Amino acid sequence: MTQLSPVRSWVASANGHADFPLQNLPLGIFSHQGGTRRGGVAIGEQILDLSAALQAGLFDGAARAAVEAMAGGDLNGFFELGRGARVALRERLLELLREDSPQRAQLEAQQSQWLFPAADCQLHLPARINDYTDFYVGIEHAQNVGKLFRPDNPLLPNYKYVPIGYHGRASTIRPSGTDVRRPKGQTLPAGQAEPTFGPCARLDYELELGIWIGQGNALGEPIAIGDAAEHIGGFCLLNDWSARDIQAWEYQPLGPFLSKSFLTSISPWVVTAEALEPFRRAQPARPQGDPQPLPYLLDARDQAGGAFDIELEVLLLTDAMREQNLPAHRLTLSNTQYMYWTVAQMVAHHSVNGCQLQAGDLFGSGTLSGPQNGQFGSLLEITEGGKKPIELASGEVRRFLEDGDEIILRARCRREGFASIGFGECRGKILPAR
Amino acid sequence: MTQLSPVRSWVASANGHADFPLQNLPLGIFSHQGGTRRGGVAIGEQILDLSAALQAGLFDGAARAAVEAMAGGDLNGFFELGRGARVALRERLLELLREDSPQRAQLEAQQSQWLFPAADCQLHLPARINDYTDFYVGIEHAQNVGKLFRPDNPLLPNYKYVPIGYHGRASTIRPSGTDVRRPKGQTLPAGQAEPTFGPCARLDYELELGIWIGQGNALGEPIAIGDAAEHIGGFCLLNDWSARDIQAWEYQPLGPFLSKSFLTSISPWVVTAEALEPFRRAQPARPQGDPQPLPYLLDARDQAGGAFDIELEVLLLTDAMREQNLPAHRLTLSNTQYMYWTVAQMVAHHSVNGCQLQAGDLFGSGTLSGPQNGQFGSLLEITEGGKKPIELASGEVRRFLEDGDEIILRARCRREGFASIGFGECRGKILPAR
């Protein structure tokens, strides 16, 4: 295992950093004080500029090729190189940045050339997203939402056989910090036969894990379940903003459309499979009576270690809370363990019909709710469709999101004997409809 | 009107050409004998190489800018320039290629530099397709399919208010001539409770009009219905290949996914709005009792001339028919007049929530069936889900598509006093499952 807790970095802010200790080393695309977009690595409160470090002669061989593949200002080419290049770059970064690096004195002396305060940098989308697919593998969410409509039979018959997903809109995916303009659209008022047009009144968040596709496949050539993990480039947080009232009226018979396509927010750092290695776990055994996955979705190694233990958190900050200096209100504390299908199963299913996946494609997991109060990954579930409002310390109540509300997603991986790592935040604030 | 029937071209094969007379001038991306991809124009049996013609000094001003925008080997930059550049290029091409062109002698002498036999060229996708959206505006198809499931109430309540659409898979759109590998997937055999996995047994075509987006919009800024026509870059034919058995099992609750994403075929030539100008017509009056479109979908100019009269044809050619030298069997003869919503209404609806459209996005219209036998745009409708097989002159029957079957889509625009134009073919042949 390349990641061990005792290893510290000579970049002081990395040691004990909640998200970006030396053991994480997530990749992203950033610009420094308005400069060009380039590949970077988060280390504590700093960003390591990979192209500047390349120019300083710090990379050779496969690590060098990995950095050179980012020259276009996105990670697509790097993703396409696959696992080997990613691991080589990680190994070299660990070597450079660890406290006992043999080159430490020299590196510290030249660090101002390629190490910048994150506060002076802007993060961008890490890749050109060719296609975006949103899955629905959070079984607790599927059951919670299903119960609102079908109390006796919340899950549809296909759910435990098919990793359900649908194509999403790629053009409106934005990095954390992008404001969310409240969408307008058609909605059907309760008890009416004709729709009206106006601002969404039931604006919601959805807590999801994002999955970046690394190497793609050729058209017509499925990715076998045993190979699927090799095609995953990394992970992020994803907020699938949802207009529930627009969704309810539009979604039959072809699925969600304008209710989701106004914006999708992601955390901009790509957390690698290598950083998440200590937080892998076996896919939880299916409850008695559940069917086994069909053979094309079943792989012993994936069942033994294809799931992750990642804590997921959602916070709400309102204008009034900001004015009163109140801390953000925790809406959700959930975990990736509530995924009924692994990410490898998603990849194998998506490509089994010959569909071509490409480097830089993004998957969303679907909302990852837990079974208990406090674990629900959307307001639809928390307030039971608006029937049970939330009371906030500011004296406000919320059924759905109001203008000025900010939603903050966070993720944390913890394991005894290992350094904790996080994903960085995925934030978005609601602006009034135009 | 820039298009008048009597105008002939000195390119002899253009005069009376079923698809590409001088009045059409569709744009595309081609390569000549394995060379680089470049912009071209179809004229009769020839392709005019725009970059070679540019080098020969044939373009100035806005026409020159239009051709220069194709330098990257796709039409995205050209689409982004909008209507002005497109019209300037068309005017210049008409001037160059008409029979009485003042430069005719010089042009004929140098034509071998920039005019190639189409038979020596390969056609490619005309643009990088960022996002693909498939609509469902063929009301006769929606009713025919709805009747199979809900005989008394075939249309869902939202249909006459919402231009229904869903996000499709962009990575698997391919130009005419690309073979179609029969997909594998999960299906639920009749009367069974558990799905099986295997090759699709109910493979179908869908006859659609494709719409290319020209200039896009900024995130959060809807395109008003009155401006929508300005954002359309052109038109093509689209075959939305569909695996009906996979679709039936997977599509609840989030819509079609693997049943459509294995391949979508398009005709590679972009037919412009200017070429289609004589074939515009008023949007047919809605039947009595139908609601008026909501104001954001209603524009007097669009109602008066936003629809098109384009004849659409589907042909089937089987291995046995090829062996017996039989002509292709006509499955469908339909028309774009069966669109319940105009293309401008699709654009206005898609962006009304602030969704960003980008140059090179592609829309499908949805299956364009007519109300009568012979006008149905899919085998699902023709054979009533496989219950009424088609008999072919080869002695074969078809419920759905068999391996070796080829589907050919064609379009033709006819109007008294004007030259007819076509779209070129959209072909695809079924290969056995791997």
TrEMBL record, chains A, B:
<keyword id="KW-0106">Calcium</keyword>
<keyword id="KW-0479">Metal-binding</keyword>
<feature type="binding site">
    <location>
        <position position="367"/>
    </location>
    <ligand>
        <name>substrate</name>
    </ligand>
</feature>
<feature type="domain" description="Fumarylacetoacetase-like C-terminal">
    <location>
        <begin position="140"/>
        <end position="429"/>
    </location>
</feature>
<dbReference type="GO" id="GO:0006559">
    <property type="term" value="P:L-phenylalanine catabolic process"/>
</dbReference>
<dbReference type="InterPro" id="IPR011234">
    <property type="entry name" value="Fumarylacetoacetase-like_C"/>
</dbReference>
<keyword id="KW-0585">Phenylalanine catabolism</keyword>
<dbReference type="InterPro" id="IPR036462">
    <property type="entry name" value="Fumarylacetoacetase_N_sf"/>
</dbReference>
<feature type="binding site">
    <location>
        <position position="240"/>
    </location>
    <ligand>
        <name>Ca(2+)</name>
    </ligand>
</feature>
<comment type="pathway">
    <text>Amino-acid degradation; L-phenylalanine degradation; acetoacetate and fumarate from L-phenylalanine: step 6/6.</text>
</comment>
<dbReference type="GO" id="GO:0046872">
    <property type="term" value="F:metal ion binding"/>
</dbReference>
<feature type="binding site">
    <location>
        <position position="247"/>
    </location>
    <ligand>
        <name>substrate</name>
    </ligand>
</feature>
<keyword id="KW-0378">Hydrolase</keyword>
<keyword id="KW-0460">Magnesium</keyword>
<feature type="binding site">
    <location>
        <position position="134"/>
    </location>
    <ligand>
        <name>Ca(2+)</name>
    </ligand>
</feature>
<feature type="binding site">
    <location>
        <position position="240"/>
    </location>
    <ligand>
        <name>Mg(2+)</name>
    </ligand>
</feature>
<dbReference type="GO" id="GO:0006572">
    <property type="term" value="P:L-tyrosine catabolic process"/>
</dbReference>
<dbReference type="Pfam" id="PF01557">
    <property type="entry name" value="FAA_hydrolase"/>
</dbReference>
<comment type="similarity">
    <text>Belongs to the hydratase/decarboxylase family.</text>
</comment>
<dbReference type="GO" id="GO:1902000">
    <property type="term" value="P:homogentisate catabolic process"/>
</dbReference>
<feature type="binding site">
    <location>
        <position position="206"/>
    </location>
    <ligand>
        <name>Ca(2+)</name>
    </ligand>
</feature>
<dbReference type="InterPro" id="IPR036663">
    <property type="entry name" value="Fumarylacetoacetase_C_sf"/>
</dbReference>
<feature type="region of interest" description="Disordered">
    <location>
        <begin position="173"/>
        <end position="193"/>
    </location>
</feature>
<keyword id="KW-0828">Tyrosine catabolism</keyword>
<feature type="active site" description="Proton acceptor">
    <location>
        <position position="141"/>
    </location>
</feature>
<feature type="domain" description="Fumarylacetoacetase N-terminal">
    <location>
        <begin position="23"/>
        <end position="126"/>
    </location>
</feature>
<dbReference type="InterPro" id="IPR005959">
    <property type="entry name" value="Fumarylacetoacetase"/>
</dbReference>
<dbReference type="Pfam" id="PF09298">
    <property type="entry name" value="FAA_hydrolase_N"/>
</dbReference>
<feature type="binding site">
    <location>
        <position position="150"/>
    </location>
    <ligand>
        <name>substrate</name>
    </ligand>
</feature>
<feature type="binding site">
    <location>
        <position position="260"/>
    </location>
    <ligand>
        <name>Mg(2+)</name>
    </ligand>
</feature>
<dbReference type="GO" id="GO:0004334">
    <property type="term" value="F:fumarylacetoacetase activity"/>
</dbReference>
<feature type="binding site">
    <location>
        <position position="251"/>
    </location>
    <ligand>
        <name>substrate</name>
    </ligand>
</feature>
<feature type="binding site">
    <location>
        <position position="264"/>
    </location>
    <ligand>
        <name>Mg(2+)</name>
    </ligand>
</feature>
<feature type="binding site">
    <location>
        <position position="136"/>
    </location>
    <ligand>
        <name>substrate</name>
    </ligand>
</feature>
<protein>
    <recommendedName>
        <fullName>fumarylacetoacetase</fullName>
        <ecNumber>3.7.1.2</ecNumber>
    </recommendedName>
</protein>
<feature type="binding site">
    <location>
        <position position="208"/>
    </location>
    <ligand>
        <name>Ca(2+)</name>
    </ligand>
</feature>
<dbReference type="InterPro" id="IPR015377">
    <property type="entry name" value="Fumarylacetoacetase_N"/>
</dbReference>
